TrEMBL record:
Lineage: Eukaryota, Viridiplantae, Streptophyta, Embryophyta, Tracheophyta
GO cellular component terms listed in the entry, alphabetical order: cytoplasm; plasma membrane
SUPFAM superfamilies in the cross-refs: Annexin
PANTHER family: ANNEXIN (PTHR10502)
Protein known as: Uncharacterized protein
Organism of origin: Miscanthus lutarioriparius
GO biological processes: response to cold; response to heat; response to salt stress; response to water deprivation
Gene3D superfamilies in the record: Annexin (1.10.220.10)
Gene Ontology terms for molecular function: calcium ion binding; calcium-dependent phospholipid binding; phosphatidylserine binding
Length: 106
């Protein structure tokens, strides 16, 4: 929230507006960045492994069906999930699939 406030003070618009209107950003990157900068991210340490397993199943299906640009992938990656929750999801993906999800982007 503090970064968003300072950005508005410095540039007289919101970071959301700049990301949404940037011609330099292409889909799906623009959609993911917009989700990241416009959502409130839970800062706590609580991890829900049921959520992690559900989202791993959704990510696995999207990857298998080559729907990486779909709304489901963007929602999971740019959701309001905490960093510990995202780490748990990515670790669960690695445990289930035997591949680090980061390796898929290379």
């Amino acid at each position: 929230m503090a970064v968003r406030k300072i950005y508005r003070e410095l540039f007289s618009c919101s970071v959301d507006e700049d990301v949404a209107s940037s011609p330099a950003l292409q889909e799906p990157l623009k959609k993911m960045l917009l989700g990241l900068v416009s959502s409130y991210r839970y800062a706590g340490e609580h991890v829900d492994m049921d959520v992690a397993k559900l989202e791993v199943a959704q990510l696995s299906e999207a990857i298998r069906e080559k729907r990486l640009h779909g709304d489901e992938v963007a929602r999971i990656i740019s959701s309001a999930r905490s960093k510990p929750q995202l780490r748990a999801t990515f670790q669960q993906y690695k445990d289930d699939q035997g591949t680090d999800i980061v390796e898929l982007s290379r």
